[in-house]
Amino acid sequence: MNKQVNLIKKIISDFPEEFNIEIYKNKNPHLMNMNLKELNDHFNFYGYNEGLPCNNINNRYDFIKLISQDKNILEIGPLCFPCMDVKRDNVYTIDYFSQEELKENYKNDPNVNINKICKVNYVLKDKVKYNQIIPKIFDVCFSSHNIEHVPCIITFLNNVSSILKDNSYFFLCIPDYRYCFDHLKEQSNIFQVLNSYYNKQDKPSAVNILEDKYYRTHNDSNLHWNKFYNSIRNIFVSINEKEHFIKNKKNDIIKDIESIKEMYELSKNTYIDSHCWKFSPVSFKNIIEILYETGFIDLKINRLYRTLKGSNEFYVILEKN
Predict the structure, then answer these.
(1) What is the pLDDT of residues 108-123, one digit of tens each?
(2) Taking Cα atoms as reference points, which of 149, 147, 165 lies closest to residue 157?
(3) pTM, rounded to two decimals
(4) Long-range contacts of the stretch 301-304 (C-beta < 8 A, 24+)
(5) 25: Cβ–Cβ under 8 A, 6 or more apart, which residues?
(6) What does the pLDDT look like over 224-278, one tens digit per residue?
(7) Measured distance CA(138)–CA(127) in Å, rounded
(8) Which is the most buried residue in 115, 155, 216, 230, by most CB within 10 A?
(9) Helices within 199-277 (DSSP H only)
């Protein structure tokens, strides 16, 4: 038993630290003359929010390299952008739609090459539980920009847990809403998460769909980061940007009100893909910790590598405990 525990601890320790003070000092030359206390204080008060590098995870490629490719892996919703080697026999995929349905759904999307859409090993459809359609248990599950699409986070995480071995991991690349096209939407909170669970939400709601249509902005993360730095100096930059954007959408909403009304009916029976959730590293950590500590899920945060300046995503390793 002790050998098994020691092995698990060794595996966990193989993941890079979230904050390494020497890396923080060496990767940020303007901090070279600070002592250890000053470096810690600087990171807590400035560096964290400013996206300064402080560990060995510099991008998603560094994050993906943490995954042992010889393990049994399930990748969720890769579409035509798989991060795992889906040609390998030990790598499987799952999606709400079949490969042919995905090709039909995305045939008019210029950002998707439908000829490169991956084979889907397991099709969810209206089945709620992964273990009803997946006969295997996996060492690793991987998801890139998927969790923000799921109608119910609690159901989703419990589904993933049901097909993971004990002491195994769920790796996630998650968009930071502040630096992508969700920038002007409201951040998700724990009560919305609980609401979707108790309402048995299994499709994106009309609110999710309509927000995606009317409150979506550009996806240039560098521009969003520049706005963030400006807002540090002048908080009204951020407030005025949002108010101006929403004001400009008023006429579109008035003009489209009949189709908006129809969407509230259509969304009850039709799955229309949308961003259901908007996370920052802090908000995601808070939600997962509440859900784990109150028994809603059995996946806990092992590592969280927060968003670096210029990026629009952060990286999380959840551990099945």
Answers:
(1) 999 899 999 999 999 9
(2) 147
(3) 0.90
(4) 302/12, 302/15, 302/169, 303/15, 303/16, 303/18, 304/18
(5) 31, 32, 34, 39
(6) 998 776 555 444 455 567 778 888 899 999 999 999 999 999 999 998 999 999 9
(7) 19
(8) 155
(9) 206-214, 221-233, 235-255, 257-269
